[in-house]
Amino acid sequence: MKRKVLIIYTGGTIGMEKDYATGSLVPFDFSNIFKRMPEMNLMECEVSVKSFDYPVDSSDMGPKQWQGIAKIVQENYEAFDGFVILHGTDTMSYTASALSFMLKNLGKPVVLTGSQLPIGDLRTDAKENLLTSLYYASLYENDEAVIQEVTLYFEYKLLRGNRSLKFSAEYFDAYQSPNYSILGQSGVHLNIDKDSLLKPKSTNFEIDLHLDENVLFWRIFPGMNFDFLLEVTSVKVIILQVFGSGTIFNNEKTERVLRELRQRKVEIIVISQCVSGGISFGKYSNSNIFSQVGAINGKDMTAEAAITKSMHLLNNPRYKTNFAELFDEDICGEVTKDFH
C-alpha cells in the first residue's frame, strides 16, 4: 500500500527561482514541483501539495502562521499518513518547536525541511532534503508510523524539532541538535534511532492553538543596563539567556531588578548562552540569586523551544497547574528530564 504524504509549502528558499529581469529570488508555483523534480514521480509514496495562499518569508513567520500550519495538519490528518512542511531556514526551528507543543498526541510523522539554495540552482541542496524528508514522512512498520513527532530534516540528519537550532547561514549542514541525539541519518541506507524517538501519550490527536505573545527574550551581556528590564511593563514572561551554566552579575542592582520583576508576577526563565549544555543553579555563587527569587531553570532547552513553550503555556486554559510547574515538565521531549 502506498503511503500518502502531504507537502505543506509555506515559503522559503526551497520554493524560489531567480527573476532574471531583476536578479532577485521570487516564489514559483509549487504545484509545478513534479515537473521541476520528475524524480518525485518515482517515490514509493503518493504525494500531494498544499500551499499557503501567499508564500511567507521565514522572517515573517510567527504565531498566526504556526496556527495556520497546525490547522492544515488537523484538516488533513485522517487523509494522509505523513506531512512534510517546506519552510525558510532562518526560523524553521522556531516553527518546529511551536508545532511540537501545538500538535498534541501526534501519531504520524511531521517533517520540516528547506534548503540553503533554490530548487532550480545547479548546486542546490533542496532536492535531497525534500526527497529524503518524504521518505521519512512515509516510513511505516507493521502499519504504524515509525516517527510520531515533529522533526526537522536537513543535510542527511533527522533531528527532533524542538531540539534543533540553525547554526550556519553558509553551509548546507546548517542545523544542530547539541543536547539530544540525532534521530536518523541518511546515507546508503535510511537509518533511524528508534530508542530516541518520542511516543505519544495518547492516541487522541488534537491541536491546541493557544499562543500568548507577552513573552520577552533577553540576552545579557557585560556592562548592560539591567534596569532596562523594568521598562517593559506588559511582559508576563522574561527568558534570560545568561552566561555559562547560569551565572549573572553579582550586585545589588541585579537582585533589586529580579525581585521587582517577581513582585510584578513576571515569570523569569533562565537558559544558557552556550549552544551545548545547560543551566545548573548553585554550581557557582553568581547563580544563587535565581533560586532565591524563584526563577525557573530552563535546563538544556534551546532558545527557540523556551520561547515557544512559554507562549504556549502562558495563560493557556487547557492547563490547571501553575506556569512554573508546567514549564519544568517535559511535554514533548524538549528538555532532558534529569538534567542537573
Give a quick precis of the structure.
The chain is about 20% helix and about 20% strand. It is of the alpha/beta class and about 350 residues long. The chain has two domains: about 5-205, Rossmann fold, CATH 3.40.50; about 215-330, Rossmann fold.
Total domain modules: 2
Instruction: Identify the CATH homologous superfamily of the largest domain.
Output: L-asparaginase, N-terminal domain
Which class best fits the helix and strand makeup?
alpha/beta
Name given to the CATH architecture of the largest domain: 3-Layer(aba) Sandwich
| Individual helix count | 8
Overall average pLDDT: 93
Describe it.
The active site is at 13 (o-isoaspartyl threonine intermediate), 13, 89. This protein is α/β, with parallel strands linked by helices and 340 residues long. It folds into two domains: 3-207, Rossmann fold (3-Layer(aba) Sandwich); 215-328, Rossmann fold. Helices cover 22% and strands 22% of the residues. The protein contains eight helices and 20 strands. The protein has helices at 33-36, 63-75, 92-102, 126-137, 252-263, 288-293, 303-313, 323-328, and strands at residues 3-9, 16-18, 25-27, 45-51, 82-86, 103-104, 110-113, 140-141, 144-145, 150-154, 157-160, 165-166, 175-176, 184-186, 190-192, 206-207, 215-219, 237-242, 267-272, 296-297. Helix 2 (63-75) packs across helix 3 (92-102) and helix 3 runs parallel beside helix 7. The N and C termini lie far apart (46 Å). The model has no long low-confidence stretch (mean pLDDT 93).
